[in-house]
């Protein structure tokens, strides 16, 4: 999936709900692939229990580079993400205009 997303520059909406099926490695790969997308307007991502701050920091990087995002839902309730991710995402969103 990450390879498919990597070259896509026209994707406007993405929902990822993997429950316990997304590894931290896969989560980070998807986040890294989304960095090249400049048209993403809606992102709804429910993180699995196998994801950690490694994936979370990748998501913060995606948000930092995206200027077209209008709707964002991040569900960290099952993940092992902590204050590192929370702080990075909050700081990124604070600078988002």
Explain the overall architecture.
With 97 residues, this protein is α/β, with parallel strands linked by helices. Helix content is 42%, strand content 15%. The chain contains four helices and three strands, in the order H-E-H-E-H-E-H. Strand 1, helix 2 and strand 2 form a beta-alpha-beta unit. Helix 2 runs parallel beside helix 3. The longest helix has 13 residues.
Short description:
With 97 residues, the protein is α/β, with parallel strands linked by helices. The protein has four helices and three strands; from the N terminus they run αβαβαβα.
Order of helices and strands: HEHEHEH
Overall structural class, as computed from helix and strand content, comes to alpha/beta
Straight-line N-to-C gap: 29 Å
What fraction, in percent, of the residue positions are helical? Answer: 40-55%
The stretches of 5 or more residues where confidence is low (pLDDT under 50) are none
Which percent band covers the strand fraction? 15-25%
Radius of gyration: 12 Å
Task: Report the strand count.
Answer: 3
- Our count of helices gives 4
Q: Which term fits the overall shape?
A: globular
Helices and strands in order:
Blueprint: H1 2-6, E1 13-17, H2 24-34, E2 42-46, H3 53-65, E3 71-75, H4 83-94
Parallel strand pairs: 1-2, 2-3
Helix pairs in contact: 2-3, 3-4
Features:
single chain, 97 residues, alpha/beta, three-stranded parallel beta sheet, 4 helices, globular
């Amino acid at each position: 999936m990450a390879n498919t997303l990597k070259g896509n520059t026209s994707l406007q909406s993405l929902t990822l709900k993997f429950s316990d099926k997304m590894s931290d490695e896969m989560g980070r790969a998807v986040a890294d692939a989304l960095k090249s997308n400049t048209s993403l307007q809606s992102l709804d991502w429910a993180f699995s229990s196998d994801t950690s701050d490694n994936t979370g920091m990748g998501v913060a990087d995606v948000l930092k580079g995206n200027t077209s995002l209008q709707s964002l839902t991040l569900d960290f309730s099952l993940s092992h993400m902590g204050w590192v991710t929370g702080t990075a995402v909050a700081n990124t969103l604070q600078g988002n205009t």
